[in-house]
Amino acid sequence: MDIDNIKAFIAVYRAGNFIEVANDWKVASSTVSRAVASLETQLNTRLFQRTTRKLVPTQEGEHYFEKILPLIEEIDLVHQTLMDSAAAPSGHLRVTASVSYGQIVIAPLLKAFRTQYPSIELELILSDGYIDLISDQVDIAIRHGNLSDSSLVAKKLADVSYHLVSSKAYLAQRDAPQIPDDLRDHDLVTFAYENFRNSWNFERNGVSQRISIRPIMTSTNAATIRQSVRDGIGIALLADWTIHSDVQSEKLVELLPDWRVSGQSKESAVWLVYPSRRFVPAKTRAFIDFLSSRV
User: Fold this and answer.
1) What pLDDT, on a 0 to 100 scale, did the predictor assign at position 146?
2) Beta strands in the chain (DSSP E)
3) What class, spelled out in words, does domain 3-85 have in CATH?
C-alpha cells in the first residue's frame, strides 16, 4: 500500500477538495486525484462521492479516515524520532503564555535559549485569552492555576504563592494593615477574574479567614496591576513571579507576611501543557527542559 496515496486521501478528506491539497503540495490537481483513485482501486472501495460541485466522503471513507489516521501519525512520529535522535533540536516551535508571564519571566530567558538552541525558530504567542493547542497548532502552552481535565499532558513548572504588596508612597499616606480585616479600609487593586475580585482567603496557624473586598480597580493583566501598585494606587494580591524583583529592590513592600493569602483556590502553580502523545519532538523537549531548569 502506497503511503503517499494514503496521505493524499487524508489531506483531501481534511480539505474537502483536490485543489487546496494540490496548491499546498505544489503539484497538479490531477496528481492528487490520481493518488486517491489509485488508493480506491487498491482497496476496491469508493472513498469519496464526486460531483461537479462537491467531494463528499462515503461511509467507508469516513471509517477508513478514523482508522488509518492514527497509524499514519505513528509512522511519522517514528521517522521523526529517528531524525531527532541524529540531529540537534531544530524547527519551528510555537509557544503561548499570558502577556505578563511572557514579558516578566520568559522574555529575559530568550537570549540564553537562542544561544543554546540556535536551530530552533521560536514563535512566542502572548495572550491573556484561551488558545487551543490542537486547533491553533501550538506546541506548548504555559498556563496558571488549577487545570481542567483534558487529553493534554501537563508538567508542573513551578508552585506559585501570592503576596499582598503596596508601594512606600502609598504607605506614607495610609497606615499599613495589621490584620486581614484592615484591608476593608484600603484601596485594593486585583484581577478581574471571579476568584480574585470578590474575596481573598487568608490562613495562619491553621485558621482560615475569608475577606470580602471591593476593589477600586481590576485588570486581567498582572503587569498592569503591578505598575498600578508601584504608582501608589493601592494594595494588590500578586504572584511571587510578578513581584520578586520589586520586593528585592524595595520598589514594593510586602504586607501581612505572616499570613498565607490567595484567591478562592488554595493551590496554584504554573504548568507546561503540550499535546498528549507518546513522542515529544526534540524541539519541544528542549524548551521544556530549558525552562524547567531556569524557572
Assistant:
1) 74
2) 48-50, 55-57, 91-97, 120-126, 140-144, 153-159, 162-166, 188-191, 199-204, 207-212, 217-219, 235-239, 253-255, 260-262, 269-274
3) mainly alpha
